[in-house]
Fold this sequence. Notes:
The chain is of the alpha/beta class. Among the domains are: about 25-80; about 110-205 and about 255-275, Rossmann fold (3-Layer(aba) Sandwich). The chain is about 30% helix and about 20% strand. The protein has helices spanning about 85-90, 120-135, 150-155, 175-185, 225-235, 240-250, 260-275; strands spanning about 25, 30-35, 40-50, 50-55, 60-65, 65-70, 75-80, 110-115, 140, 165, 190-195. The radius of gyration is 25 Å and the shape is globular. About 25% of the residues are buried. InterPro entries: DUF3097_C (IPR021447), DUF3097_N (IPR053883).
Amino acid sequence: MDDRYSADVLSPGWREAGRIIIPTQEATRDLVVEEVATGFCGAVIRVEKKIVTLEDRHGKLRLFPLGSGFLIDGKPVTLIAPTMAAGLGRVRTASGSTAVPDAPARVARASRIFVEGRHDAELVEKVWGADLRIEGVVVEYIEGVDNLDEILRAFRPGAGRRVGVLVDHLVPGSKESRIAEAVARGPFAANVLVVGHPFVDVWQSVKPARVGLAAWPEIPRNIEWKHGICATLGWPHEEQADIARAWQRILGQVRTFADLEPQLLGRVEHLIDFVTAE
């Protein structure tokens, strides 16, 4: 017979009997967790002074104290600061380059990279920003390439003062291709490189799966592309502020180069190499 009175209730371990042990988890970068009290779910982007910063899929940031009250895959964990070894484990930037921890930004070079618009500049900064600061390269948006010849004449490219230009929709027969060909024949050809991707807009360079699509929708030519995309996806698009919010929603899904199409990746890397060549 089972003698329920024979065990010593004061034997070692009696306090832990039946207690659920919550495991600890180092808050390493890109770890996805949910904060129980608020339901906020996001990826770890930094840990400073016992505070963890999470970024959700819309790009929204929230700060929480390290400790208990977090879930990973629905299971409770206690978040702790990453060890030095864990902190050094992430040795790649968002672009895939080798990271240089605590390296100061280099004094800006005279050379520049021009992009067509603000969205292009924000995307390049998010993925290649760390690399560009190490190299001292400034990215400027020029609001389209129609006036590229005038812009180059004002900038006066030359030795040690190169210009790389990233162009949307650079395909044979397009206006953009004609502008690029004119630059290649112009007086600054040796120190200017114009490259581009085939997409109508830089939005398309984000892999559609990042915003829950199998493919970016086809938009009729008589409809402004960004407005057409938002309308197709059921997003507000009446005002420019709506378009800006839509872009931030898309940009928030980009974490590394793996979230972008290779047609853009290669072009940006080419420009960085061109403007940093000694």
